[in-house]
Amino acid sequence: METILSLKNLDKKYGAVHAVNNLSFDIQKGNVYGILGPNGSGKSTTLGIILNVVNRTSGEFSWFDGKLSTHEALKKVGAIIERPNFYPYMTAVQNLKLICTIKGISSEKIDEKLKTVNLYDRRDSKFKTFSLGMKQRLAIASALLNDPEILILDEPTNGLDPQGIHEIRQIIQKIASTGTTILLASHLLDEVEKVCSHVVVIRKGIKLYSGRVDEMTTSNGLFELKVEENEANLLLELEKHPSILKVTKEHDIVIATLNDTLTASEMNSFLFKKGIVLSHLVKRKPSLEQQFLDLTNNN
Ligand SMILES: Nc1ncnc2c1ncn2[C@@H]1O[C@H](COP(=O)(O)OP(=O)(O)OP(=O)(O)O)[C@@H](O)[C@H]1O
């Protein structure tokens, strides 16, 4: 697997504020990564360091297995880390042409990138007529003009309405499906869950977890159960089962949290043999939100 970016023991202090604390992780080609953390956890600072706009205090980072200097590597990176400045009285196409001229890149990809972000029909409209969501989509088009290996976005849906958020997330998924690696910073669990395959969870600059979103905890999940009669017997049998860590109640539903793997049919058949007939049985994984809270609490 090709490593696009590698961070090793990266550290950044702003005076007494330890914004990034000994942070290490790798970004592999073709995945969608989220840096997830609450406000002030060091996400923007981390992105600033790898894009050479913030100086690190210590530690290392290397692009493309260290084969290229950071300056050369950044030509293969598309990034939006601030609200971009476009000219309000120029059209979408005119703005993108100007960016191509400034960056010294060919303007032949402008139409293709406008199509990617669903702005082709509005290509000749002035920037000042665009909604916030359209402005953000034009920014993404501008970051794609050089066909980057990796697209970096800082809080890409901040300030947008639900429709705008949905559009941006769809576009990110579309870009990822063409093989472009993506790294986005977000404080929204929901966003990372919907868009990313991998996540680096940070709090106060410290990494709490990095890995696949769907393997964020080793939790075995839980069962929701209900019986029409003799609930006391159900509780008793569940408490005796070796794969069950704890038994609690939420309204009229019994929750059995697992400490080992157990399928719904195994659970059903175990209880049936004990003479217990269930009226409700659902197996659930804890939500990402719960997993995130568990991680931050445990650390
Ligand atoms: N230029 C700066 N000077 C001093 N402190 C800074 C500076 N930039 C960031 N910080 C501090 O570093 C910490 C991390 O900030 P950073 O912006 O990287 O976090 P973040 O996770 O991106 O948060 P947000 O989503 O709110 O931008 C915060 O405590 C912040 O106040």
UniProtKB/TrEMBL annotation:
The keyword Phosphoprotein does not apply. Keywords: ATP-binding, Nucleotide-binding, Transport. InterPro entries: AAA+_ATPase, ABC_transporter-like_ATP-bd, ABC_transporter-like_CS, P-loop_NTPase. It holds the Pfam family ABC_tran. Residues 5-229 form the ABC transporter domain. PROSITE patterns: ABC_TRANSPORTER_1, ABC_TRANSPORTER_2. Belongs to the ABC transporter superfamily. PANTHER family: ABC TRANSPORTER, ATP-BINDING PROTEIN. This is ATP-binding cassette domain-containing protein. It comes from Polaribacter aestuariivivens. The lineage of its organism: Bacteria, Pseudomonadati, Bacteroidota, Flavobacteriia, Flavobacteriales.
